Amino acid sequence: MTKRGNGEGSIYHRKDGRFEVAVVDPATGRRKRTYAKTEAEAKRILRRMTSKADSGESVLDAGATLNTYCKEWLVDRAGRRRRESTVREYGYRLNTWVLPVIGRLRLRQIKVVDVEDLLDGLVAKGFSRGTVVAIRNALAALLQDAVRARHLTVNVARLAQLPEIGVTDREPVAIPTDEQVRALMKQSRGTPLEPVIAVCIATGARIGEVLAMQWSDLDLDAGVWKVSRTITRGIDGSAVIGLRTKTGIAREAAFHKPTADALRKQRTRVLEMSLRSNYWQDHGLVFPTNIGTAQDPHNARKALKPMSVAAGFPGSFHAIRHWYASLAVTIFPDVTVSKALGHARTSTTTDLYAHLRATDSAKLAVAVSVAVNEGK
């Protein structure tokens, strides 16, 4: 290790052969680290970093690796103008898909072709267009902050293009029939998913929104649910209760008496779960895990699959949402259905579900209840 006076930084020779350069960043008061292959390169980096520290600037610049810069960015910069849930999503995408591929490159070395090669690799794995775009957007957000800090002159992620060949949109969702929806309800009876499916059918909500539902969001007597959050994914990939819906729009969803009754039974079930648990974390969730924490939508989808197969039901929870929308668009106006589904723009609803017709969400709840209970 090469020691220097206070504020001058240090150089460490690591066991892996690299040289670690560490300097206290005046912008945050924390020690920042980057790495070099040779001692001479480490000394040049140290001089540059200490010069920036002396002038009160952030010590990391385009000479840092993407791994190092990303780690510091997620802690220091990413959350300054973004929601916590957005930062978590960016962190998950970057740590899972971007850094393993180009993380060792220095920020200034990353070229458009590097990003496009990364995107090509994601396409080769079978990722949908939406997923690939989301991963590129996370990298673009990081690099744009580097441009604002004048560490870079151009955001190469924004210039990178998706390949025209191989990129596909999601498979079209098969819209279930009323009979298939009833068959799924019957198949789920007596299982933990029964009330989850009941809420999805009654409201057309996304599964992440349903699993993020809290008792404080509900008025069971009035049959109203204030939809204001969804399940997001933490940097470590775990399920986290978000602070907003997918589109950032809170809405009220109406439901009929059978759904309210199912939720009352669920409240009793959750109370029994909490009494049995030796380690209960009370988040006020309607559909928690067996220790009170947020359920991962992936696990709920996995549990639904054998029920769907047994019931002859096509698809997963999103197919229920499409069924709900297909029923709604034959009766109600586009504005009503758009609000009920939580779409940010009415055009999203009309593009997906064509022409809509007529009334408010309370009448929609009645129509849904009639459709799924017909023939019982």
Please give a structural write-up.
This protein has 376 residues and is mostly helical. It folds into two domains: 150 residues, Orthogonal Bundle (DNA polymerase, domain 1); 196 residues, Intergrase catalytic core (hpI Integrase, Chain A), CATH 1.10.443. The chain has 15 helices and eight strands. It has a three-stranded antiparallel β-sheet with strand order 1-2-3. It has a three-stranded antiparallel β-sheet with strand order 4-5-8. β2 and β3 form a beta hairpin. α8 packs parallel to α12 and α13 packs across α14. The longest helix has 20 residues. It starts with 9 loop residues before the first strand and ends with a helix. The N terminus is likely disordered.
Task: Report a brief summary of the structure.
The chain has 376 residues and is mainly alpha-helical.
Task: Report the radius of gyration as a whole number of Å.
Answer: 25 Å
Fraction of residues in helix? 40-55%
Based on secondary structure, the structural category is mainly alpha
Order of strands across the biggest sheet?
1-2-3
> Could you describe the largest sheet, including whether it forms a barrel?
3 strands, antiparallel
**Tell me, what is the CATH class of the largest domain?**
Mainly Alpha
Mean pLDDT: 81
Query: What general outline do the C-alpha atoms trace?
Result: elongated
Give unreliable regions as ranges.
Answer: 3-7, 354-360
CATH-defined fold name of the largest domain = hpI Integrase, Chain A
Structurally, the number of domains stands at 2
Q: Report how far apart the termini are.
A: 77 Å
Number of strands: 8
What pattern of helices and strands is seen along the backbone?
A: EEEHHHHHHHHHEEEEEHHHHHH
Beta-sheet strand percentage? 5-15%
Q: How many H/I helical runs?
A: 15
**What is the CATH superfamily label of the largest domain?**
Intergrase catalytic core
CATH architecture of the largest domain: Orthogonal Bundle
